[in-house]
Protein 1
Amino acid sequence: MHTTAFARILVLLAMLLLLLMAVGAATRLTDSGLSMTTWKPLGYLPPHNSETWQKNLDNYRASPEGKIINKSITLAEFKQIFWWEYAHRTLARVLGVFLLGSIIVLNARRKITRKQSLFLFLLLCIVTIQGLLGWLMVKSGLHAEPRVSPYLLAIHLTIALSLLLLICARLLGEVKTKKRSIVVSKYSQATCFAIAALALITFVSGAFIAGLDAGSIHNDWPTMSGKFIPTDYRSLDSYITNAFENPAAAQFHHRVLGTLLLIASIILFLNLRANQRNYQALITHARLLIILPSCQVLLGIITLRLQVPLFFGLAHHLCAIAVVVCSCLLPLRLVSRKVGQ
C-alpha cells in the first residue's frame, strides 16, 4: 500500500508519543516525578560531574518530598529517580522538535498540503501547552504537600491520550480503501460510541488512581478489604470531593467502570457478530474489543494484588491506551443504516 510522507510522519509521531507516555507512566510508578525541582523550557544537559549531581540532590532534599519522604536518600538512589524524570522531559522536547522539523521540511519539499500542515501545527501547539501543564503539575507537588495534584495529573494524561487519538484518527483517514467503512445498524453504531465514551471515562478514572496512589490500598480482589464497598468509601464529606480525592472511592469507581467496559465490549462483539453482514471485514477489530479489555482487567487484578510493581503497572497502563484507541477508532470505521435495510 502506498503511503504519503505525511502518513509516515504520523506513524512516527504515534510511536514517539506512545514511548513518551510509557516513560511518563514509569516516572509516576517509580515516584520520580518530583526529582527535578526546576524547569527550563528549552531543556539542559544532565549532570555530568559530582558537583552538578550534588547540586541537584541538594535542591531535591530542600523540596517537600526530600524533607518529608526521602530524608535519607543517597546520591545513587537519587540518580535512579532523576533519570526517569529527565528522560520524560527530554522525550517531550524531542517530540516538539520533531513536529516543528516535520512542518518545516515537508513544506520546504512541498510534500504536504495546507490542511495537513495546519494539523501538525495544531499538534505542536497542544504539545507546547502540554509541556507547560506538566511543569504546573510538578510545581503543585513542590509546596507543603509532596504530591502532585491528581486533577492536573489526570488532565496531563488525558491530553496526551487525546493527542494520540487525533494522530490515529487522522492516520485512519489517510488510509483510503474502498472497504474501510462498514455498514451497521444505528443501534450498533450508537453502542460503539457509548463504549468509546466509557473507555475514555475509565482511562481518566485510572489517572486519578495514579494521582492518589490508590493502588497501594485494598489490594484484594474481588472485594476491597473483605467488603464489596470499602468501609472508607465515604471518608470525605462532599460527594464530588470524595469521588475524586478519596483513594478508596477512586479505586472502587475504577473497578466498576472497568468491569462495565468489559461487559459492554462483549455485548457489542456478540451484536456485531449476529447482525453485521460484512463481519469478516471487522473481525480483527471486533476480536480486539474482547481481548484487550479482558487483558486489561486481568492486568489490573495482578497489578493490584502485587501492590503495583513497575512491570505490571506499566503493562496495565499501555493496555489501557490500546483499549481506548481500539474503542475510539471503531466508530470511525462504521456507517450507520436503519435496521432492516
Protein 2
Amino acid sequence: MSELTLLILRIGFLLLLWFFVFAIVYALRSDLFGASNRKNTAAPAASPAPAPSAAPRAPAVPPRSAAPPPVLPTPARKHEKATIHNVSRLVITAGPKEGLEVSLGRDPLTIGRSPDSGLVIRDDYTSTHHAKLLLWNEEWMIQDLDSTNGTFLGGKRISSPTQITLGTPIKVGATSFELRR
C-alpha cells in the first residue's frame, strides 16, 4: 500500500475512535443526569419583520393567571401539625410542575425521577428515589431517601423522618411544594 492510503486509513480510524469516545460520554451523561430540558438560549437570527395581518394572533404562551394564587398560612394555622385529618392534597408551588395538585390518601408517596415514583419530578437536581411522604401515627412525615442534593423542610435540610406542619414549604430538587387542606 502506498503512504497516502495508510495516512487516510489512520485518519479514518482516528475519527472513528473519537466518534465512539463521544458516543460513550453522551450515553454516560444521559444515564447519570437524565434527559435535560435545555432551552435554546442563543439569540435568534435577524429576520424581516412580518407583514401585518388582518386578524390578531393569539399569544403563543397562555397567561399564568389561570393558576390560583398560593394560599398563605394564617397565624392560627402556622404551627399546626399536618395530619390525616387536616391534609388532603399536596400542591406544587414552584418548579416545572407549578400549580399541580396531588390528592393524598393513606399510602406513602415516593418523590423522584423514577417512573415508578408516585410524584415524578424530572430535573437534574432530583435523585431517582429522592424523598418519601408517609403517615406516622396519623401525622405526615417527610423522609429523605439518601438523595444527593437533599430534601429541605422550611429551608432546613432534613436527615431523618421529620414532621410536617401545614403551609411549610418542602423543597426537592428545583421543586417546592406544600401540604394543604
Protein 3
Amino acid sequence: MTGEELKSLLAHGEGVDAEFKESTHQLARKIYESICAFLNRKGGHIVLGAKDDGGIVGIAPDSIQEQMDTLVKDMNNPQLFRPTYYLNFESIEVDGKLLIYCHVPESTQAHSYKNVYYDRNRDGDFELRSTEQIANLFIRKSKRKTEETVYPALGMDALEEEAFDFMRQIVRVDNAEHPWISMSNEEVLRSGQMIAVDPETGKEGLTLAAILLFGKRNTIASVLPMYFIDVLCRIHDTELYDDRLQVKENLMVAYRSIMEFIKKHLPEKPYIEGMQRFSLRDRILREVTLNLLIHREYSSSYPTTFTIFSDKVVTENWNVPYVYGKIDLTTLKPHRKNPLIANVFSQMGIVEELGSGTRKIFKYTPLISGGKEPMIEEEDVYKVTIPMEAGVQNEKLEWTKLWDQLGLSKGLSKGLSNEQIGLFFESLMKPVAASKLRVILGYTNATKFKNSYIVPLMEQGLVVMSQPDKPNSPTQKYYLTEKGKRVIGSVGEEK
C-alpha cells in the first residue's frame, strides 16, 4: 500500500470493508473487534491514525513500533483470538504523518475475540449473540452446504414418484431432448450430484437436496421437522388472514402450490414485450417464489412466509448472508445458497442464469406497482417486498360483486379466483364450447354447469347460443351479446 493509495482509501471514509481508529498515543483495542469481523465476513482495511471520516491525525512516532508489536502479539495469542491469525501491519507516511495499515483477508475459519464472535455489516461490527447466528457463521465458512448433508439410511422409496413426474413434465416443455426425461429417478439424482457419500460414515445416501426436492412428506418431516412454508393472504383481515396455505411437501409441490395461491388471490396483469405476451404477476412472483425456495437456509427453524397484502407482497426466510444490506442492481452479487437445488430448477428451464431472476424483479415490478421499486434486504432474514399498485385488489372485489349480481354464486364461486372469473368472461367474447368453460371453472357435470351458469346468463340476455335452432347440438357454442359485453366491460377494460 502506497501513501497515495492509502490517502485515496481514507477519502472514501469508513464502510463495510474499512475501519479507522485514531490510536494517536496508545492502541485502540476496539480495533480487534473489527479485525475479527473482517476475518469472519469478506475482509477489509484497517487504518490506525485516522478519524471515522478519514481525516488524518497520525500516530505519535514513539508509539508506532509498540502498537504494531502489540497487534502482532495479540493476534497470535489464543487467549484472545481463536483460532489465531497472522496479519502484516505496516507503517505508512501520508502528508507528513505516520499511520498503521493492514489488509485483513476473509478467513476460511470462524474466529472469536475474547470468546465472542463478531460479524460486519454496513453499520459496523456486531456481536453474534444467538446460537443461530453463530451456526450461520460456521455454515458460511464450511465448504459443505446444508443441502449436501447425506442420509445413508434413506433409499429411493423415501421419495415421491409424482415429484419426478412433474419435474420431467416441465423439463420436456423446455427441452424435449433433455437426458433426464429418459433417465431413471436414481440416475437423475446421480446426474445432479444428489446422491453422495457421507464423509463421516463412508456410506452412500440421499442428500438433503434430493429429499427437499422429491421427498415424501413424512420423509421431509423426519429429517427437517421444522420445515414448512406459511403462505398467507391478508388483503382484508390483516390481523389473522383471509386465506392460508401451509406447505409441508417437497419443493416440486411447494412451487406449484404457491403459484396457484398467487393466481387465486392476485389479478392477472397482462403485458406485451416485443412479440411476447405474458403476465407481469407471474413473471415477477415466480422469481420471488423461486428465491424463497432456492436461497433459504434449511437448517433453521425460522418460519418461512409468503404474504399477500392489499398493497404489497412480502416474503421472509432464514438466510446465510453473503453480504449484508439492501440489494439493488448496482450492489447485486449473484450467489446461489443451494446450488444443487438451484440446478434442478435450472434444468427444468424455470431458473435461468445466475442473477437473472433478481434483474427481472427490478425490471418488471415498477410496471405493476405504479413505478415503485422492489426492496430486497439480505440480513440473517432474507426479505423481499414487492409493492402493488394502489387499488389493484379492488379489481377482484368488483369481479366478485358482478359474479354475485348475476346470480352465479351457487357454492362453487366461493373457491374461484379472480383469474378464473375473468378468464370465464373473456372466453365468452368469442363463441366457445361449454366444455371449455367447465374446465375454466373446474366443473365436471355438464347438465348442472349449464343450468347453474349458462342458463342464468342467457335469461338475462347476456349470452346467446351460436346455433339457437339446435340447442342440443354437440357443436353448440356460447358467446356474449352486446349487452353482455357492456356489463363485462364495466368491470375494467383490462379484463
